[in-house]
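agent> Task received from the user: take the single chain below, predict its 3D structure, and emit C-alpha cells. No templates, no multimer pairing.
agent> Plan: (1) validate residues, (2) run structure prediction, (3) serialize to C-alpha cells, (4) report one or two observations.
agent> Step 1 OK, no nonstandard residues flagged.
tool_call: predict_structure(input=
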Amino acid sequence: MLKYQYPILRVLTLLALGVSTALLADHLAGASSFCGFDDPCGEVAASQFGNIFGMPLSAIGVGWFTLFFMLTLIPFQRCSNFLRVFAAITGLGGAILLTIQFAILHKVCPLCVTVDTAAVVIALVALVRRPTTAPIRWYWVAGWIWLFGAAILTPVFWSLGSRPKEAPEQVREHWAADRITVVEVSDFECPHCQRLDPILREFLRRHDVKFVRLVAPLRGFPNSRSAARAYLAAVRQGKSEEMAMALFKAELRDAASCRKIAAQLQLDLAKYDEVVADPATDREIDATADWATKDTAGLPLLWIQNQLFTGVPTLEMLEDAFARAHPPKH
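)
tool_result: status=success, residues=330
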C-alpha cells in the first residue's frame, strides 16, 4: 500500500470532494437530488453543526479537499511535510463530525458519513509513514486534473438534470385559469417546511395567487400523520390555514395535541373526529405521498406554476419565479 500512498490519497480525496460537491449543489439549489426522500441529510445540514460562521460545511469541504488534492500533485518535500499535517487535521475533523452525528444528533446523513469516513482514512494513509516525494509525469498530472474536474462537475450536472421540467399532473389539476397558482407539499414536523412557512406566508401576502397546500407525512417524524389528519379535518371546515399555522408553531403534534388545537380553533370536534378516523383521510394522505416521492427527493416541494423549488428558497427566489410565471393558456 505504501508504494501507492499518493494515488490512494488522491482517490480518497476525490471521493470526499465529489460527495461534498453534491451536498453543496443541493444546498445552493435548495434541492435534494442526492439524498432519498426520508434520509435525514437535510436535518443534519440544518442543525447547529451544519455550518461554521454561516458557511455550510459542504462548501468548506469542497475548498478543503480541493487544496489537499492540489498538495498531492506538488512533488516537493516541504509540501509532503505539510500534507501530513493537513491530513491529520482532515482526519480529526472527520472523526469529530462522525461523533456529532452518531452521539449528539442521533441522525446520520449517508453522504456526510462517506465524506467523514474518507477524511479519517486519508489521515491514516498519510500518517502511516511520511509521504515520499517523487516526480510525476505530465500526463499523470493531466489525468488527475481531469478526474478532479469530473468530481466537481458530475454532481452539479446531475443535480441540474434530475430536476423535473414540468409540474406533475397532480399539481396541474389545481391550476386556476386566471391566476398564478402556488402548490406546496409539506410535512408539519419537517424542519425545512417549518423554515419555509414564514417565507411563503410573506410571499402570499404580497401577491394575489391561488394557493394549495398538500400534505405528505415523512416516516422519520412520529407525529407527521397525526398532524396531516388534523390539517385535512380543518380543511373540511374551512380553517385550513389557521390549522396549518398552529401546527407549524406547535411544540407537540400527537393526536391528542392536534385535537386540542382543533378545539382552540373552534372546530366542530364531532366532525373533526369523523374525518381523522375516516380511512379515506389516510388514503388521501398516502396518495399525495406516493406521487410526491416518485420523482423528487425531499420536502418541502413548492411549485409556482411549472417552477419547482425543493428545500427552502429565499423570498427573492420566489419573487423571481413569480415574475416569470404565467397562468395556463386555454
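agent> Step 4: summary for the user.
The radius of gyration is 24 Å.
agent> Done.
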